[in-house]
Amino acid sequence: MDSILRKGLFLVTVTGALASFPVTASAADTDASGIMPSVGIEEVLNDCYTSQNDIEVEDYLVPTRKGEYLDMAFANVQSFLYIRSEPTKESEWVGKLYPDYAAKVIGPVGEWTKIQSGSVTGYVYSEYIIIGNNAEQKAQEMVQSSEAEVPEEAFTYAESKEEEEARLAQEAEEAAAKAAEEAQAKAGTGQAVVDYACQFIGNPYVWGGTSLTNGADCSGFVQSVYAHFGVSLPRTTWDMENVGTPVSYDQAIPGDIILYDGHVGIYMGDGQIVNAINSSRGIGILPATYTTILTVRRLI
Description:
- The protein is α+β, with helices and mostly antiparallel strands.
- The chain has six helices and 16 strands.
- It has three domains: about 10-60, no CATH class; about 70-155, SH3 type barrels; about 185-300, endopeptidase domain like (from Nostoc punctiforme) (endopeptidase fold (from Nostoc punctiforme)).
- Strands 11-16-12-13-14-15 form a six-stranded antiparallel sheet.
- A hairpin with a 2-residue loop joins β13 and β14 (about 270-280).
- Mean pLDDT is about 85; it is low at about 1-50 and about 50-65.
């Protein structure tokens, strides 16, 4: 007998019985619907002995379990696929499936398919999902290529509208906290620039000069201070208007440079700048808003 005895039969019993009775297996009739008769092992063997028709014994066996992932679906999209509350494009969306996200098919497949993914149950447009044997194959490939200990962990599922809103809010909060940390770190570095620059308050202003001790003009002062920290700046205020990163005045932190029409200074914080003012006042401190601000630039 060439038939493969599948799950549900006792291999030893059948093999022994057939070896003892050298007869040809024969088939019992099925009804018009093709549904297999419900039989036990004894009836199978009895049919084998008494029927005049040849049969395949495997016809009586319990059918093999269907593919483990045949009831799955995968989003076949470039961006995302809405899961809607009703099978219409006008209905409210309740969740999203991103590329290759997994779902379980829980309703008939037509123009729309009812699915469940994560905590979301709803309808997706069938044109944009992979189902059936293709889904089974894709699932097997994902499981095989995954390092997850549990097969189900190889799949990613949808998030509801509420879950997405919560995630985005958390991401925004984390981004703001990170930005604040970076600003604080830069402010610490900028404060070092301010502290260094303030050492030269009272030294002379010299037109065209770049010496922090013997004299500098406004752009020469800023250029020389930043050179001490390894930052190379152009010589004139007009060229400095395009360096670094622009920020608004209300976002200015210590160490930013503030440019005016023909003048530049280093922001100290608290609304003040340290700068080479003029020949009568030398290097000193002015209100940051003493005149119209053209731009604020962040260098470090």
